[in-house]
Amino acid sequence: MQVTPIEAEAIERFALHVTVPIFLEVGDSSRLLATATHFRIDERSFLITARHVFDGDLDLEKLAYPENPLQGGLYTLGAFTVLKPQDEHIDVAALELTSEDTVKRLTDNWQSLSLENVAAASANTDDGTCFVSGYPGSLTKNEAGWIKGKLTTAFTQRLPTVPAEAEAPVISELDLFFDYSREAKSVNGQVIRTPELPGVSGASVWELRPSPGVWAPEKVSRVVGIQSAYFHSKYIRAKSWWAVAKVLEQADPNLAEVVRAKLLEI
């Protein structure tokens, strides 16, 4: 489906309020670690992101997020549990948030998603428009204690075949690939160079679908994957939400079945 400039701007405003940058506090400063999305599933609160950002020796007590989508000081996540698979190829992690203050702040200042915002990726990729919104580290700054980031939204298309450069293994049920060219058109029609994507790991990948009634970004957009890797000028790689169901089994097998049931809906 084609997206007009006005619709593209509305989609980016929507993405701004559901896309949460995750920082790692280091001394008196901080660095961008990943991008996440806040989901409420069965009255439980999760930040869905990429597994690989938790590799290595991280001080989890130093993970933080901005007060609101526009700017703000950082707050640590408080109490939470990291759910991540042993299999490195399932590059998805879920942070189950148990701090009431954190859940309230994210709910009040950001927009939470539910399983109504999730779907399995379409089998037909010919005319489906997709997008990924995240915070490239090169465009995110800490100025006088205030976090100022630039949300970047890349509109793209699903690739019908696996790129030759894709690192093995590739599992058809889990791996999704999207075009990521060196240049792109901005919402105002200007040709721009696409940015490098460190910091965007863990961002939601969305698919736009026709919806009856009054058009609204939340009605036509569905999360189909989680960004896990990229090859500039070639592709963006994502893991499908079937991987999220696998991860959530660690918290509650029944929760995983609820996710799978949603993905099986037509």
> Uncertain spans, ≥5 residues at pLDDT below 50?
none
Mean pLDDT: 87
If helices are DSSP runs of H or I spanning 4 or more residues, what is the number of helices?
Answer: 5
Report the strand count: 17
Question: Biggest sheet: strands, sense, closure?
Answer: 7 strands, antiparallel
Q: Name the shape in a single word.
A: globular
Please, what is the CATH homologous superfamily of the largest domain? Trypsin-like serine proteases
The helix/strand order is: HEEEEEEEHEEEEEEEEHEEHH
- Within the largest sheet, what's the order of strands? 5-4-1-2-3-7-6
CATH architecture of the largest domain, please?
Beta Barrel
- N→C terminal distance: 18 Å
CATH class (first level) name of the largest domain: Mainly Beta
The residue fraction in helices comes out at 10-25%
User: How big a fraction of the residues is strand?
Assistant: 35-45%
Alpha carbon gyration radius: 17 Å
Number of domains as seen in the coordinates: 2
Helix vs. strand class: alpha+beta
Instruction: Predict the CATH topology of the largest domain.
Output: Thrombin, subunit H
